[in-house]
Each structure stands twice: as structure tokens, then as C-alpha cells.
Amino acid sequence: MRRPRPPGAPPSLLQFRDVSLGAARTPRRPEARSCAARVSSRASFPAGPQHGCPQRGGWGRCRVLAFLTAPGFCALLVFPTPRQQTLYTLWSCPDLLPVFTTWPPVLEKLVGGADLMLPGLVVPPAGLPQVQKGDLCAIALLGNRAPVAVGVAAMATAEMLASGLKGRGFSVLHTYQDHLWRSGDKSSPPSLAPLALDPPDLSEEKGSVQADPALQGDLRRLTLEGEEEENGEVQQICGEKALSEASEDPSIRGLNPEPTDSKTLQEQMDELVQRCFLHALKCQVRKADLPLLTSTFLGSHMLSCCPEGRQLDMKKSSYKKLSKFLQHMQQEQIIQVKELSKGVESIVAVDWKHERITSFVIAEPSPASQTIQEGSREQPYHPPDIKSLYCVPASMTLLFQESGHKKGSVLEGGEVRTIVINYVKKNDLVDADNKNLVKLDPILCDCILEKNEQHTVMKLPWDSLLTRCLEKLQPVYQVTFPGQEPIVKKGKICPIDITLAQRASNKKVTVVRNLEAYGLDPCSVAAILQHRCQASTTVTPAPGAKDSLQVQIQGNQVHHLSRLLLEEYQLPRKYIQGLEKAPKPGKKK
Fold first, then answer.
1. Which long-range contacts link 210-217 to residues 24+ away (Cβ below 8 Å)?
2. Does residue 268 sit in helix, strand or coil?
3. What is d(CA 131, CA 243) in angstroms, rounded to the nearest whole number?
């Protein structure tokens, strides 16, 4: 027959099955402030794969230890394995175990079943507690000494420091809100002030829980008998305040004793998106720019209004997509968005007299922040100096040897013209009747005439002579980057090639090749385009080209590429092909 619940016992004790409470009655001297109850019994917990279970199949049979500190129960300890304390006990006696501190957001991960990693530890000024591998430890949150988890140290403190606080630090056995916690009274952790280097006496303050140092030493040495000594007794004295008293006081409940008013990252991004939106409408967009593609508005206007040191990322906001954000702005009657072509939205109207636009104030950056930002910027890109040159082949060495050049000599176009003119005048090859014609001697015939022309062509005009001479030379080019030695390569430099390609689901992509020849890093260009176009970019090996990469951007982004290469990088237009493939602007109504 089950015995009645003792007076003052928490109702949660009735949740356990087969718990003998015969010795846990009200003490003979209720007026005593502290006394001990000796209880040693067995309890069965509901089986289930809950966090904190020492066995995969469930808790099984666990030893229960109840404490009496006042008229009634103070705490309940459940030992699935020897020397394992519950949070309820640690809230009453927080110094039973070494306490390690972590950040409040980590609690969600611990409750979800994760172990505590060393990078998540908060190192106090006095240093980490000294523990050995396998020691039982308590885990608390920053600002509250009440533990929220119990775990086993995966390494000693010295090893933690030697590893640079990297790796797994604690194997978590029991956490706040897990199955074992639900088996108790389901109270929240009390608010316990963190220990200072020289902690004051707080034993008389309301809600504080202090334990006798001698008692703490006894608790650290607490052991349980094995299964063969089920009838053994464990005696212990704990504290002066009941945990039930502490948990009933609303002033000391909660994980965070001081709720913060700081905004979440999502709220901060929402504020940044709206700020850039209003800034762009007030300072950059004009009536003549309408209708304006929404993608162009984001890439060319909103992103340029983002403050230095911050990055605008629509996916991190509550809107997730630009279209959803613009719908909210349209509902506020700031703008009007229409789908002028299938699947393409444009801003067709803006109410510049709207209160939010007129009242928007642009924050001026401080001179100190401007100095820091200017010093932190990377060196700007300077385009290389590219020259078209000519190399003397073996078939034309006779023409150039008189000027001191031999096979493989590299010459500029002006030098070639000068050498040819001097050769003609030196050998008196100008036609006496027509100064615009040049008589061809055997060397000129062998160098510039085709085989079928050597017996038919006797004279050539000056321009034809010089043109044929340049065509017979081998083309080379010289690239000189700022602060570097010139580089000479054979052939003609390949221009930056911009093409449009069709991919799956009839989607267009923009492909850019030959960026390396102009000193541009494809990965850096891809990162810039991804930020400006708000589109996915990939860098892949260019087909048919050795050691060359190509950048692929989703959609037709030729317009953004044109502004980047011509205006910012200041590359000559003759070295870029494919700029004519930019999308045509919509017809203005």
C-alpha cells in the first residue's frame, strides 16, 4: 500500500514510482532550521531517448536521494550513475560541482542534445576551474551562477588551455528542460549572482543559497553503494533554505536575471534594409529613372547606400526576398511596383512627398570613422599598360639586319615604319616619277611579296608597303602592371569575353572569361558581382583553356559588368567584347 505524501513534500515527488518515502517524514523537531533525512531507495523513470539518459534504452532503475533542510523537502537528487547530481540539487547547493560558464544562446544547443565545445566557454578573470578528465562539472550561463546543465569533462583544464580552447570540452548528461528535469517540479533556474574574486557574505540576502564549506566537502565525497547494498544509508546536511521556497519566489526565477532590450540580428537587418531603401529614394532615384527594374534598384542604388562596415543581406532579414519587402513598401504607399514584362518587376512610381522619405535623415559619418575606413580599404585596382608589338621572323631578318636587329627582336609599330623608310631611302628605292611609289628590290620582294607576285609586282605604294611589312611580322604584346616588370607574350591579347548562355529551365546566365590576363582575380570579381547583382555566382575552369577560370552570374548582368570594368577598373573598351548584349531599357510611358 502506497504511503501518503509527507507534509511539505513537493507534488512532483508523486511522479516517481516505487519510491519509499518512509524515512522522509516531517522531522521530530519542526522548529529546527536544519536537519538531515536519510533516504536510500530505488525509482523507475519512464524510458525514452531523452537527452541526458545514460543508457540508450531509458533511465531504468535509478537511486533517489531526498534531503530535508527545513520543515519539508529541500531538494531531490537522482543518481542514474554514481556521483551525478540533478539541477534541482545544484540550484540549492551551486558549489557542489566545478562550474563552467557559457553564453546564453548556447543553452538552446545543449537542450537540443549537443555537447559543449570549448570555443563556447567564457573564461572568467580568475581562470577556469581545475578539473581532470572524467570529472563531473556544472554548466551555467553568463550572468547567472545557477547551473543549466551537468556534464563530464572530456579533458583536464590544462589540456583545454593547451589546445587553445578548441574541440569538445564536456559530454552533457543532463540539461534544463530535459526528461529528468520534467520529472521534478519543473521550476526555472533561480537567479544567483556570479562569484566575485572576493565574494561578500550574501547568506542573509533573500533568494541566495549558501552552503557550509564543510558540508560542501562532504558532498564532493558523496558516494553511493552498489546494487548489492541497496539497504545502505547516505546521510547529508544541505543548506538552510528550501529549494521549493526559492523556486516559488518570482523575483529569483528565470535564466536571464536582467532581460536585455537589444535587437536581434534579424531586426537589425530589417532596419538596415529600410534605411538603405529610404536613402536610395531620397538621394539617388529621380523621376527620369522610372520605370526602374527592382533588381537594378537593389544592386545599383540600395547597396551603394549601405553604411561602411556593414553588409546588406536581404536573406538575413524577415522579408527574405526583395519582392516581399517592396510589397510592404507598396502597402505603405511609398512606391508602386508593376510587372511590365513576364516575371520582371519594376518600380513605376515613387511618392517623394511621403512622410517617411521627407523625414528621413542621412547620418553623417564621423571624421574618425572615415579615417579608419580609408585606411582599411584595399589598394584600388589599376589597369595594366598593354602594348601591341612585333617580332622579327627568320624570313625578314635580311630587311632588319642593317638596322642592327636580328631574329626574335621585338619592335613597336613606329620602329618598324622608321626602319622600312630608312631602308628605302638608303637604297634609293623611291620612284623618280612618282614619289608615292617604292621600287622593290630582291630583299623586299622576298620579304613582303607572295610567290605568285614576285614576277608581276615591281612597285608598291608607301601605305601598302608598310601594311604588308607589318602583316609579315609576328604579333606579340607587352603587359606592364604597376610596380612590376613588363611581360611579353606571343600572339594577340585575348579580350575579356562576355557571353550569355542558356541553362536548365530556360534560365539565362552571364559568363565572363579571360579576366586573369588583365590582372583580375575571378574569385574577387565574382564576390563583387554577387553583392551588387544580388545573384548567385560560380567560378569554374574555362573549357578549352589551360589554367584559366570563368565567372558565371545568374541572369543577364552585362550592365553591371560594363559599369565595373569600364567605370571602376577603367579598362579600355577595345579589350572587352560582348558589352552590346546588355538588356535594353524598358520603354518609358
1. 210/239, 210/240, 211/93, 211/95, 211/96, 211/238, 211/239, 212/237, 215/93, 215/239, 216/93, 216/95, 216/96
2. helix
3. 27
DSSP 279-326: HHHHHT--GGG-SEEHHHIIIIIIGGGSPTT----GGGSSS-SHHHHH
Strands 136-141 and 459-461, by their bridges, are unpaired
Say which residue the cell 540539461 belongs to.
175
Q: In the structure grid, which three cell numbers stand for residue 336, read together?
A: 508602386
Mean pLDDT by 10 residues, the chain (589 residues): 46 36 36 34 37 38 42 44 66 88 88 88 85 92 88 91 86 88 85 60 40 44 39 37 41 40 80 92 88 85 82 87 92 91 87 91 61 50 89 90 88 91 90 89 88 86 91 91 86 92 84 91 89 86 84 90 90 91 66
Longest dimension (CA), the chain: 142
Residue 243's H or E segment, with its range, is: helix 243-248
Rounded Cα distance between 269 and 513, Å, is 35
Alpha helices in 484-578 (DSSP H): 522-533, 558-562
Residue found under cell 590544462: 158
Distance from C-alpha of 117 to C-alpha of 503, rounded to nearest angstrom? 43
